[in-house]
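Annex B. Sample input.
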Amino acid sequence: MDAEARHHFYVNTRNYCHVSRVTHIEFLHISPRNAGAAAALSAFLRGIAIHDPVSGKLRTLNDELGCRKLELERLVCGGSQ
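Annex B, continued. Sample output.
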């Protein structure tokens, strides 16, 4: 499969991080925390640059929280925000 097509497929289907054979990393997007303490967020939620495990190319994964915020605003408020 073409490296660019594979990358876009994985990222847009959320398989990039959630399929361990791709990243070989186990993690939580939101870490457990004590009452009253802030939870640590995964680098994917905050935005991160990683090397593609297949092609070795440096990939920038966007700020997922920002993307979700924009999508929720679009759904609730209508139109494109």
